[in-house]
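Exercise 7. Given the encoded structure of a 253-residue chain, write a plausible sequence.
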């Protein structure tokens, strides 16, 4: 009986030791898992910081090396006073009198190189020009768009809205592109001399009206023999003074 009681006590002691060993192992594994979870954000943060610091130079703004479009209009190493207006910036002379010569202080724009009379490169210079706005220039100093939709032969003579641009070698005040109302002045290629010659020679058959594109009037003159000559004489006078023109409303050349 004593031997059986000792065997039972030994079995209980072994069971308790095994339980304590399993509890110790479980506690150690849980600790390692907690350590791993807490250390993971630090590792990710470290990677993020490293990645950001490594890629930082790629976000550096690159310096612009583009050449402005106006440089193509500016002759290199030419006289500064003869540069086109697009190549310089000038200060307004508020003391200038309209219609009189005035002096303006100017400076070349970036990427523009010019020289003075002694072939020395300079940036600041003066130019002389007439004190007037661009829209007040003579008609020979600017170029305007043309319209082929208005009638040049009409009473009163028609006008159209044109967009005008000052020529490159002309200096003036204000905007170099401006709107202006102009008289219709386009041509379709009809010659006044040809129309008059046809009216004198073959006007009785309506050749002049056919040439000008006026088919109904031409047929009327053809079948009426020039209105028995009266219509022919009237057309000679009207075409001679320029009152009758091309049917498309253009000017003679």
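Solution.
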């Amino acid at each position: 009986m004593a031997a059986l009681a000792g065997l039972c006590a030994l079995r209980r002691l072994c069971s308790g030791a095994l339980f304590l060993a399993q509890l110790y192992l479980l506690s150690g594994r849980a600790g390692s898992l907690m350590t791993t979870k807490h250390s993971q954000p630090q590792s990710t943060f470290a990677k993020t910081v490293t990645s950001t610091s490594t890629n930082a130079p790629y976000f550096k703004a690159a310096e612009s090396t583009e050449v402005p479009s106006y440089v193509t209009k500016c002759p290199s190493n030419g006289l500064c006073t003869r540069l086109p207006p697009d190549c310089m910036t000038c200060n307004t002379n508020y003391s200038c009198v309209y219609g009189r010569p005035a002096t303006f202080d100017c400076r070349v724009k970036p990427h523009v190189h010019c020289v003075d009379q002694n072939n020395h490169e300079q940036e600041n210079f003066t130019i002389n020009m007439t004190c007037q706005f661009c829209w007040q220039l003579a008609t020979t100093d600017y170029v305007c768009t043309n319209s082929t939709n208005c009638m040049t032969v009409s009473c009163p003579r028609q006008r159209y809205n044109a967009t005008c641009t000052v020529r490159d070698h002309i200096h003036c005040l204000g905007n170099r592109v401006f709107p202006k109302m102009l008289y219709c002045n386009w041509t379709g290629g009809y010659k006044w001399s040809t129309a008059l010659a046809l009216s004198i020679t073959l006007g009785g058959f309506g050749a002049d009206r056919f040439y000008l594109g006026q088919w109904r009037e031409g047929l009327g003159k053809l079948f009426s023999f020039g209105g028995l000559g009266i219509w022919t004489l009237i057309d000679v006078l009207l075409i001679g003074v320029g009152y009758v023109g091309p049917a498309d409303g253009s000017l003679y050349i």
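Remark. Confidence is low (pLDDT under 50) at residues 30-63. Students should compare their own answers with the one above.
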